[in-house]
Design a protein that fits this description.
The protein is an alpha/beta fold. Strand 1, helix 1 and strand 2 form a beta-alpha-beta unit.
Length: 64
């Protein structure tokens, strides 16, 4: 099964969920604002680049 997870990559909870799904043999994709602080084997990362240097200005643009 293909799974697309939208969450902060640096969160330990996100990393644990993704590892769980990878161990079950699923095709896992992660959409996040920042790259993870550890290597995530078996996860395809999609990092949304910032348009501005301030999160509050970037938030609406990143969701379009």
């Amino acid at each position: 099964m293909k799974i697309c997870y939208i969450a902060p990559a640096e969160s330990i909870h996100t990393q644990r969920w993704l590892d769980f799904f990878v161990q079950k043999g699923h095709d896992v994709h992660l959409i996040s604002y920042e790259p993870p602080n550890i290597k995530m084997n078996g996860v395809t990362l999609h990092i949304l680049p910032p348009v501005f240097n301030q999160l509050y200005l970037d938030f609406p643009l990143r969701h379009l």
